[in-house]
Each structure stands twice: as C-alpha cells, then as structure tokens.
TrEMBL record:
InterPro entries: Bact_StressResp_Reg (IPR051932), GAF (IPR003018), GAF-like_dom_sf (IPR029016), STAS_dom (IPR002645), STAS_dom_sf (IPR036513)
Source organism superkingdom: Bacteria
Identification of the protein by name: GAF domain-containing protein
Entries under Gene3D superfamilies matching the protein: 3.30.450.40, STAS domain
Length: 285
C-alpha cells in the first residue's frame, strides 16, 4: 500500500500516550465500553492503543488481516466512516471474521490520517450493547482523530530526526563505511551529500563503502541522490562500493537502471567489500 507507514508500532509513544488519556473522554461521551487506535501495515491492522472499561475485547497488539478487518470498510468508505448498531447483524459486517471474534454490537470507526493526509489507520469505539450513533457522534470522533493526527506527526518527526545524523565509520585511514538507514527525504539527502563529500576530502579517503541494508527505498533518493553521490565521489577520485543491497533496492534498480551509468562495485557484505580493497578481517583469539 502506498500509504503504509514505515515505523513499527513501538515508535508511536506520543500517540499511544495521548490516546490513553483521550479514550476516557471518548468512552464517556459516546457511552461505549471500548475505544482503540489501529495502524495499517502492509497486510494487517495492528491495535496500537486500546481502552477496555469492563472486559478486554480489543487488546493492544491485536492484529488481523486487512481484508478481514472492519478497518478496510472504514478506509474504503466514501466518507471514511463505519457506523452500525449491531456488527453481527449488519449486512456489511455480519459475515466478517472480525465480527465473529469480537462479538460486539454497537460500532463506530473513522479513518485516522497523518497531517499530510496519508491514511495511518483508524480510530474506533465499540460496545457489547446496541448503540445508535448520530451525526454529532461521528463528527466528535472525527475531531478526536484530527487531534491524534498531531501526535502521529510528532512521533514521525522524532523518528526522522533520529535518522538525520550521517554516521561515518572509519575502518582505516583511507577507508570508511557509510550506513544509509531509514527514510531519506530531501533535507536528509542534502545533508548526506554534504557530510560524505566533506569527510572524504578532509580525511583523504580512497574508498567509501555505502551500506544500503537499512535504506527505506524512496524514488527521489534512489533515482537522484544516490547516483549523484556516487558520481561526486568518483569525480573526487574516491572509489565507491555498495553493500547490503536489499531485494527492494535491487528491484528498484531493475526498474530505473540509474546506477548502471556510474557502474559502482557491488558486493554482498562488508567483509567482501574490505576484501576487494585488500583488507582482511582477522578474529582475535
């Protein structure tokens, strides 16, 4: 899914913390037993945070296949809402696996987005009893979802800031490794270019090993920044070796063919990279 978020569930501390406080208000205002937030993954929905007032209906960490979830109906709905007074009798939900597992009646869910408008997941409430949710209830839950969107943005900003630094690991006086990890947006790509080229000049580097094992592929970086970085290093007389190439990176290269112009050397791991330069890793005993 193009809108899939790439942080794992453990990264959304602010969202989960804020949701726990907000759920008390939501469950009281809508007179329901359970409220929860889900995150959409590649194939499944995961409950990030939940509040179950009487009995545990939806535990945190609960996952269900996207196609079997009520969240799919919410996200795909024109109004991004699913409201029913009885999940087990509603024609849209009565035959669904999630309805059978949850055994609840009253249900209201709205789409949860980040501040860029990308679908993050859902915000839902449910109850063992039948509930009739009106337009004001829907508007209220959508307002709460918009508040939680700011928490999503805060957590994602913290995550990206944690990846802003460009770690350059010296191996010898003339050889260094650059692990390229996470999401590389325009700002981070510019910093990466500046830091690597400056380090290469100041440290008189002959070989840079670019480790792509942690790179989250983005078209802009792969198609523009990575070839530019390799070319700039070659102009400076610095040889580049690529290692840690993931299936995603390999697939993108087949689609774009952007690296073939500069023909960088590619190897499977750091040990092989150093071996091609003429170094050998020796274990101490």
């Amino acid at each position: 899914m193009s809108e899939e978020h790439l942080m794992d569930s453990e990264g959304y501390y602010s969202l989960k913390s804020a949701a726990q406080k907000i759920f008390e208000v939501v469950t009281q205002r809508l007179d329901v037993q359970t409220a929860y937030v889900t995150m959409r993954g590649k194939h499944a929905m995961t409950v990030l945070s939940s509040l179950n007032k009487k009995e545990e209906i939806v535990p945190e960490g609960y996952t269900i296949d996207y196609n079997e979830s009520h969240c799919r109906l919410i996200i795909n709905d024109q109004d991004h809402v699913l409201s029913t007074n009885n999940l087990m009798e509603d024609k849209l939900t009565s035959d669904m696996k999630a309805s059978a597992e949850l055994q609840v009646r009253g249900y209201l869910g709205v789409t949860l987005r980040d501040l860029k408008g990308n679908v993050f997941g859902t915000l839902c409430v449910m109850d063992k009893e039948e509930k009739n949710f009106d337009d004001q209830d829907i508007e209220f839950l959508q307002t709460i979802a918009s508040v939680l969107s700011h928490m999503i943005d805060l957590d994602q900003t913290h995550y990206n800031m944690g990846l802003m630094n460009v770690p350059i690991i010296p191996i010898t006086e003339s050889v260094s490794v650059v692990p390229i990890q996470g999401i590389v947006d325009e700002e981070r790509a510019d910093k990466l270019m500046r830091d690597v080229l400056l380090y290469g000049k100041e440290q008189d580097i002959d070989h840079f090993v670019l480790d792509l094992s942690g790179l989250v592929v983005r078209d802009q970086f792969f198609s523009e920044m990575l070839p530019k970085l390799i070319h700039a290093l070659q102009v400076m007389g610095i040889d580049t070796i690529l290692t840690g190439i993931t299936p995603e990176v390999a697939h993108k290269e087949i689609e774009t063919n952007v690296l073939s112009t500069h023909k960088p050397k590619t190897v499977s791991n750091l040990k092989t990279a150093l071996s091609t330069i003429g170094f050998k890793l020796v274990e101490s005993h």
